[in-house]
């Protein structure tokens, strides 16, 4: 029996997301490919006792204890907070809850994070691409032209992956009051940015959705825990559509434990930002490096003379970065996560040898 023919038409043609770990499997010593926190997770010794409980009961479907702890740090009320199985779950829910398959469309701004497009494909929702300018900023005229009455969501990633820059705040503020759909600002890397978060603006705009995550500065990528902050109306719709127990009890327990250790996280952020500026300066010294773009994130984008050759030579030395040279506006570019000071040294030494 040909099971493949049973798929929905849009799934037959789907190009799935390719994670950093799909593209590289094997033995390596330095992983600078997935923009994780290279230092570790901010968990302390109390963790084992926190986890010593039975798991026979279902977890709190609305994760109120965890949201309360997050609210104390972010200053966003619980009723304006949604927690997902990674921010990827919130991205998928935006489609399932707000976009009519085959009718509605969303706008994405390439080069940007790949899941906006993959989730659109899974949900059979049209994607309209309005490329960023050569300075990796918004093409406001292009966005205005792409919008029609079926445009439900605009995804703005700031700081943007893979370019690393923040999007000019006033450009986003031009879109927010004028667009009739949802404006999603993906702030996965906001902890590393000079620009302040848009969560302070939630009370101004009922159509604003801010995504953040525990996968980056918080060092908990393996837990799969993402946040969406929005108006009560948006959050209530998310809660209506999400699977009942979408955040498991172990994740809730471990995240609560981690939240007690914010000083450790802040210290890692300070080191990462300082090392990022140092790495940019060091890379600019190399003959093989043509340009290093300014970054507000925990990674940098660098244009090099031979991207794929450099990538392969680093792999041979057990150092994994991300080859973004086939991505629009990123021709010849590599994306490199800021590692520990030791890892950054290893990377630089390897690049000098190539
Ligand atoms: N948004 C951006 C911009 C990202 O780079 C990533 C992960 N690489 C995500 C969202 C997904 O994060 P999470 O682990 O919370 O699903």
List the helices and strands and how they pair.
Elements: H1 9-12, H2 20-23, E1 30-31, H3 47-51, H4 64-74, E2 81-84, H5 87-98, E3 105-108, H6 115-122, E4 126-129, H7 140-146, E5 151-157, H8 169-175, E6 182-186, E7 208-213, E8 226-230, H9 232-241, H10 249-259, H11 262-284, E9 289-292, E10 299-304, H12 307-316, E11 319-320, E12 322-323, E13 333-337, H13 341-353
Parallel strand pairs: 1-11, 3-4, 3-5, 5-6, 6-7
Antiparallel strand pairs: 2-8, 7-8, 9-10, 10-13, 12-13
Helix pairs in contact: 4-10, 5-6
Walkthrough of the structure:
- The chain is of the alpha/beta class and 354 residues long.
- The protein has 2 domains: 3-40 and 263-353, Aspartate Aminotransferase, domain 1 (Alpha-Beta Complex), CATH 3.90.1150.10; 48-259, Type I PLP-dependent aspartate aminotransferase-like (Major domain) (Aspartate Aminotransferase, domain 2), CATH 3.40.640.
- The protein has 13 helices and 13 strands.
- It has helices at residues 9-12, 20-23, 47-51, 64-74, 87-98, 115-122, 140-146, 169-175, 232-241, 249-259, 262-284, 307-316, 341-353; strands at 30-31, 81-84, 105-108, 126-129, 151-157, 182-186, 208-213, 226-230, 289-292, 299-304, 319-320, 322-323, 333-337.
- The strands form 3 sheets. It has a 7-stranded mixed sheet. It has a 4-stranded antiparallel sheet with strand order 9-10-13-12, with helices on one face. Strands 1-11 form a two-stranded parallel ribbon.
- α5 (87-98) packs across α6.
Highlighted features:
354 residues, alpha/beta, Aspartate Aminotransferase, domain 1, Aspartate Aminotransferase, domain 2, 2 domains, 7-stranded mixed sheet, 4-stranded antiparallel sheet, 13 helices
């Amino acid at each position: 029996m040909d099971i493949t023919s049973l798929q929905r038409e849009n799934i037959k043609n789907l190009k799935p997301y390719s994670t950093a770990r799909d593209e590289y499997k094997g033995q390596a010593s330095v992983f600078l490919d997935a923009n994780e926190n290279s230092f570790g997770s901010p968990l302390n010794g109390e963790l084992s006792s926190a986890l010593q409980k039975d798991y026979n009961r279902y977890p709190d479907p609305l994760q109120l204890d965890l949201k309360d702890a997050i609210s104390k740090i972010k200053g966003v009320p619980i009723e304006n907070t949604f927690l997902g199985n990674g921010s990827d779950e919130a991205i998928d829910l935006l489609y399932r809850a707000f976009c009519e398959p085959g009718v509605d469309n969303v706008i994405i701004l390439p080069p940007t994070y790949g899941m906006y497009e993959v989730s659109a494909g899974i949900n059979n929702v049209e994607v309209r691409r309005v490329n960023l300018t050569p300075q990796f900023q918004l093409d406001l005229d292009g966005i205005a032209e792409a919008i029609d009455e079926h445009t439900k969501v605009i995804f703005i990633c700031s700081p943007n992956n893979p370019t690393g820059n923040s999007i000019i705040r006033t450009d986003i503020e031009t879109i927010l009051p004028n667009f009739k759909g949802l404006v999603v600002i993906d702030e996965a890397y906001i902890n590393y940015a000079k620009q302040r978060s848009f969560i302070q603006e939630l009370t101004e705009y009922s159509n604003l959705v801010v995504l953040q995550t525990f996968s980056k500065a918080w060092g908990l990528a393996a837990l799969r825990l993402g946040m969406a902050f929005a108006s009560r109306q948006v959050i209530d719709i998310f809660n209506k559509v999400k699977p009942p127990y979408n955040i498991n009890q172990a994740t809730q327990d471990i995240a609560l434990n981690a939240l007690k250790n914010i000083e450790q996280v802040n210290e890692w952020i300070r080191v990462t930002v300082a090392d990022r500026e140092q790495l940019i300066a060091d890379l600019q010294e190399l003959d093989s490096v043509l340009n290093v773009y300014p970054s507000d994130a925990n990674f940098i984008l660098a244009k090099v003379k031979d991207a794929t050759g450099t990538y392969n030579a680093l792999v041979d030395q057990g150092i994994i970065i991300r080859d973004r040279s086939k991505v629009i506006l990123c021709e010849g570019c590599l994306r490199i996560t800021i590692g520990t000071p030791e890892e950054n040294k290893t990377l630089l030494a390897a690049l000098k040898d190539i």
